[in-house]
Amino acid sequence: MAIFSDSRGGVLLNTYTGFWIKKPVAYHYFHKSEILYRFIKNYQQNKSRKDLIMQYHYITKKFSKSTLTSHLKDQNLKINTSGNQLNILNNNYSLSLQIHEKQLDFCCETLHDAEKFLFPALRSFHPFIFIIDTNMDNFGWISPITMNREHKKEQVLYSFL
Q: Is the four-CA dihedral 123, 129, 130, 135 of positive or negative sign?
């Protein structure tokens, strides 16, 4: 997780991570978000476990920096880029977003700021993004998922070895 600073050099405490979850997994675990949350936290704490690595890569999709940046600009957001970091400005709101291969890290004063302009842009990019508050045990989807019967296959995220 990156450390974000505000324009005055102070560290902002509200940091979040977003994961693009593959469609079949999102359908299956939409109402089982706590299981998905526990799996991701377990993976983050045990990145050397091959079983967790394989499952993490199986359930998540890669973010394309150029595609996501272009999409955000199409949403009329003002963006300054520096490497993988995007500083997004919209009226009185600002947000720092870092794009990594399999996750988005962002920081804002309140989650309400993200809901005002980042989440609508992300929803139109892809609806299956799972957000975790890195400082608290808060998590959830950016969009409701319409359940489709074709995605009722049983899936397991991790085994109890």
A: negative
How long is the chain? 161
* C-alpha distances in Å from residue 85, one per residue of 60, 66, 69, 105: 21, 12, 10, 9
From residue 153, alpha-carbon distances to 27, 29, 55, 73, 150 in Å are 10, 11, 16, 37, 8
CA dihedral 120, 126, 130, 134 (to 10 degrees): -60
Residue 45, classed as helix, strand or coil, is: helix
List per-residue pLDDT tens for the chain, 161 residues long: 333 444 445 544 589 999 999 999 999 999 999 999 999 999 999 999 999 999 999 999 999 999 999 999 998 889 999 999 999 987 777 889 999 999 999 998 888 888 888 999 999 999 899 999 988 888 999 987 665 544 445 555 554 43
The answer to whether 153 and 28 have CB atoms below 8 angstroms apart is yes
- List phi, psi (to 5°) of 147: -75, 135
Could you identify the residue written with the tokens 């940091």? 15
